[in-house]
Amino acid sequence: EKIRIEIISLGLTESRIASDETIQQLFVECRLYNFIAEETPLSLPKPTSGQRIHYNYSNVIHVDKATNHARREYLKSVLLQPDLHTDSLRFTVVSDPPEDEQDLECEDIGFAYVSLRGIFEKQRDIIEQDIDVFDSQDDSAVIGKLKVTVEALHALRSVYEECKDD
To answer: Which helix (H) or strand (E) holds 136?
Structure first.
């Protein structure tokens, strides 16, 4: 009764991000709808072209019936109302200002998505898969690849069985 999310690594393509000198440190936030936002505990130096930075960060979102009713209701809505734009986990790549420039704000530089409904429809978790990171200023431009694992199928099946019982 849980969803396990792993943020493994990030690589950047040749893009405005790669050439922007003000972007030096990056961390990744993962958000499930409006419930939970988790971020990698470390921000890492921006990778050079062809290189990857490794977060190896793992997190579990509990969706058991006893203590996480609202999250289960949300998962039901994902399965029952497929037109929702909220059926994805959203990964945000964030630029963390350097230590000596703490007056600068963190800046969202890219977004990547994993569809929970897609996992359910394909009946397959996402294991160490590269997903596209889209530029926050131009959502048609891919600025990199984020390698993630999302294990949600067991929880989604459980919620689906509950929907059939209701």
So the answer is: none
Give the span between the Cα atoms of 107 and 156, in whole angstroms. Answer: 33
Q: Are strands 142-151 and 107-115 parallel, antiparallel or unpaired?
A: unpaired
CATH number of the domain that residue 110 is part of: 2.60.40.150
What is the pTM (predicted TM-score) of this model? 0.90
What is the tally of structural domains in the chain?
1
H/E segment holding residue 95: strand 88-96
List C-alpha distances in Å: 154 to 37, 119, 157: 21, 10, 5
3-state secondary structure of 166: coil
Judge whether 110 and 17 are in contact, CB under 8 Å.
yes
Amino acid identity at 147: K
State which residues form the domain around 122.
2-165
Residue 125 pLDDT class (50, 70, 90 cuts) = very high
Least confident range of 5-19, 67-81, 123-137: 67-81
Under a CB-based contact definition with an 8 Å cutoff, are residues 34 and 80 in contact?
no
H-assigned helices in the chain: 16-19, 69-80, 116-122, 153-165
